[in-house]
Design brief:
about 600 residues; alpha/beta; seven-stranded parallel sheet; three-stranded antiparallel sheet; 20 helices; globular
């Protein structure tokens, strides 16, 4: 049993596989051409994607892609042999349940994790034990095979960007999400000089670094200072400049499940599976194992994942925050056999330490640097400090916001808080968020960073305003900072996800309307008109958006073209009963 895009091994390490994964953008909005005369249509743009936006294929001894039931065996999307884990650990699990003690379960789990993650097996120099193919096409979007182009636009539907500058000047730099950040940086440098510039005749390029791509930016700026002369503009989208606390906690085996029983037995599965009766039922099933045995097994699973999935992969080390690195380095890279990896990672950490200096050098050469971030969303419940750390679910907010100050979750900076003014003390500027949560003056880019409140990282691509803003920032010669066009793109905005509404509209367009009454049809079309009207607005009212989305859903249900997928009353009652029972069971265990 092998599963692609499997969210977690045993539903515990979801963040390991989904971290920095950016789902497909919703359908691209129509091109906004009213300012086209002011757009730069000459400079080529290079997209440096996030995790999961380029496949890594495993090859056989003949250099051919290895087929499987899902197409081909891939290193990303991550292929996990779940049965290998079950087969390795099942006897020890049953024995541990019977005897109420760890009968080799922890070690079996660790070994099983190694076998399950077989596609990531590497030697101590970070080389795959199985050959891989990482597509990186040396041509613009206009020359890609139609199927490849469709796939890339599926990952990042920036058709509007292609319409503005021309697809002959739009490039997609493909890299390995579990590769070598040093090697991928070298590839990007060569891609710029040997592909993009010769093919376009351009003297400068623009680069959009997305999510995991931010780690490549960190090393790129430091390793190739000569490239700072040819980068005309940089746009970051939720870049992992200082990694993610998720990876830091995993490297140091510092996960919340070891400190907080409420996470382990009440919150974690709910955060992964939703507020359903299945979540609470599985929570109680976890009680079959004694607490110490379960935590030991989970610790071994974390160690196994870190060993095979992280230790020999430098781009994963690039996701380790600076504050975590000394302890993580001592734990995983202190042995001489890992000296080669350690030297590479140390090199990257030097690049990160120099990031501010390199950023200022880049700006001094005339490059405009813009940034889009998210905040006010908790980290996944596995992180030790998930209850307080302001984040976008996957990355702690200060990382992509480059040092910006955030209040703890559920709090504000205080009524009397004054902006620190670290990087902007212009009295005419106000970089404090209206909700009192963000002081952008402490971030490296206070005047060119936009923030979206309540936005989850992996759902960011479904926020149409983020897409529009990034395209404008990349192309509009009049877009210089957050004060350039605050009426359309204020520095602080809310979030909305348009994928569900787009699906509803598609359902209506494809529906058999022969049995829909005139009044029902009018109600659906009125709801769609409201959705489209809100899509024209770039200042988001999320409550208003959700109301419009729900109105469309109800109209479609009333028209008989869509079934109501809401939980039944029985399911709701069953969920409440199991939730209450789950809490009761946990209180009894606490007393015992």
């Amino acid at each position: 049993m092998k599963m692609k895009r499997f969210i977690s091994a045993l539903l515990v390490f979801a963040m390991m596989l989904s971290v920095f994964s950016v789902a497909s953008f919703a359908d691209s909005p129509e091109a906004t051409t009213k300012h086209i005369a002011d757009f730069d249509t000459e400079t080529p743009v290079i997209l440096v994607h996030g995790m999961s936006q380029n496949d890594t294929y495993m090859l056989d001894e003949n250099g051919k892609r290895i087929p499987d039931d899902n197409g081909y065996v891939t290193g990303w999307p991550l292929e996990i042999d779940i049965m290998a884990l079950v087969k390795e650990a099942l006897p020890e699990l049953l024995l541990s349940i019977i005897t109420r003690r760890d009968c080799g379960l922890s070690e079996a789990i660790r070994t099983g994790a190694y076998n399950a993650l077989y596609v990531l097996h590497k030697d101590n120099k970070g080389n795959y034990l199985t050959e891989v193919e990482v597509p990186c096409y040396e041509c613009p979007m206009s020359e890609l095979d139609p199927a490849v182009k469709e796939a890339y636009y599926g990952f990042l539907p920036v058709q509007e960007l292609g319409e503005i500058i021309g697809e002959d000047k739009l490039y997609y730099f493909g890299y390995d999400s579990f590769g070598d950040v040093i090697g991928e940086t070298d590839k990007l440098h060569n891609y710029i000089h040997n592909v993009v510039m010769p093919q376009t005749g351009a003297k400068k390029v623009k680069i959009c670094y997305i999510s995991l791509g931010g780690t490549i930016a960190v090393h790129h700026f430091n390793t190739y200072p000569e490239d700072l002369d040819i980068i005309d503009k940089v746009v970051f989208i939720a870049p992992a400049i200082d990694g993610s606390n998720i990876i830091g906690d995993l490297f140091t085996n510092n996960l919340s499940v070891f400190y907080d029983d409420n996470v382990l037995y009440e919150e974690l599965l709910v955060s992964l599976l939703g507020d359903t009766y299945l979540s609470y039922l599985l929570n109680m099933v976890l009680r079959i194992l004694p607490d110490d045995v379960l935590k030991s097994a989970l610790g071994s699973l974390a160690e196994g994942v870190a060993d095979v999935g992280l230790r020999r992969t430098t781009i994963m080390w690039a996701l380790c925050p600076t504050a975590y690195y000394p302890a993580a380095r001592d734990k995983w890279l202190s042995d001489p056999e890992f000296s080669f990896i350690r030297e590479k990672v140390d090199s990257f950490m030097t690049s990160r330490a120099n990031f501010e200096k390199n950023l200022r050098t880049l700006q001094s050469k005339g490059c405009e640097v813009m940034n889009v971030c998210c905040y006010d969303y908790p980290l996944v419940a596995l992180c030790k400090d998930y209850k307080t750390t302001n984040a976008d679910k996957i990355i702690h907010a200060a990382s992509p916001a480059m040092g910006t100050t955030f209040a703890n979750l559920g709090e504000t900076l205080g009524e009397n808080y004054k902006a620190k003014g670290t990087y902007c003390n212009n009295p005419e500027h106000n970089h404090l968020s209206p909700d009192g949560v963000v002081d952008a003056t402490t971030g490296l880019l206070p005047c060119t960073t936009w923030f979206f409140k309540g936005q989850a990282h992996e759902q960011l691509p479904n926020n149409d305003v983020v897409l529009k803003l990034a395209i404008r920032a990349m192309t509009d010669n009049n877009m210089h900072d957050v004060y350039s066009n605050p009426a359309e793109y204020p520095q602080f905005n809310e979030h909305r996800l348009i994928n569900t509404a787009k699906l509803y509209i598609k359902t209506w367009e494809e529906a058999d309307k022969s049995k829909v009454s005139a009044s029902e049809k009018a109600a659906v079309e009125a709801a769609i008109a409201e959705i489209n009207a809100q899509l024209e607005e770039t200042i988001i009212d999320n409550e208003k958006w959700l109301a419009a989305e729900n109105a469309l859903k109800l109209a479609l249900i009333d028209a008989g073209v869509m079934e109501d997928d809401s939980p039944s009353k029985i399911e709701e009652i069953f969920t409440v009963i199991l939730k209450t029972t789950n809490k009761g069971v946990n209180r009894v265990y606490e007393i015992i």
